[in-house]
Design brief:
The protein contains four helices and no strands. By secondary structure, the protein is mainly α. The protein has one domain. Helix 2 runs antiparallel to helix 3 (48-68) and helix 3 packs antiparallel against helix 4. It starts with a helix and ends with a helix. The relative contact order is 0.09.
């Protein structure tokens, strides 16, 4: 994370900032965040579905920032709507899956 910050600062200070660099930076952030947080889903006392949902939403949020850059302002609205619909889909699918995975009495 430190090297990531130094790289970004160096690009800004030296005038080498680019759209490709920003996109690759965001992609690296999303991948590293997922690698850091997904292992928490393997801890038995933590809700793995919730951890995975958080990582997925964080990924969507990260890409919303990347994709929103060239499409402002209408792109921001479309991405916000897409994220909202994805959240609703995740909730619906989780609710339908719960009876199937819960132990039978």
């Amino acid at each position: 994370m430190t090297l990531n910050a130094i790289d970004g600062m160096f690009a800004r200070e030296s005038g080498m900032k680019s759209s490709l660099g920003s996109t690759l930076n965001e992609l690296g952030d999303v991948v590293s965040d997922a690698a850091l947080y997904l292992p928490f889903a393997l801890i038995p006392d933590l809700p793995s579905v919730g951890i995975v949902a958080i990582v997925l939403l964080a990924t969507i949020s990260g890409f919303a920032g990347v994709f929103g850059m060239p499409f402002e302002p209408r792109g921001d609205i479309a991405i916000a709507v897409a994220c909202l619909l994805l959240v609703i889909t995740i909730i619906n699918r989780a609710q339908k899956a719960l009876p199937e995975i819960s132990p039978k009495p």
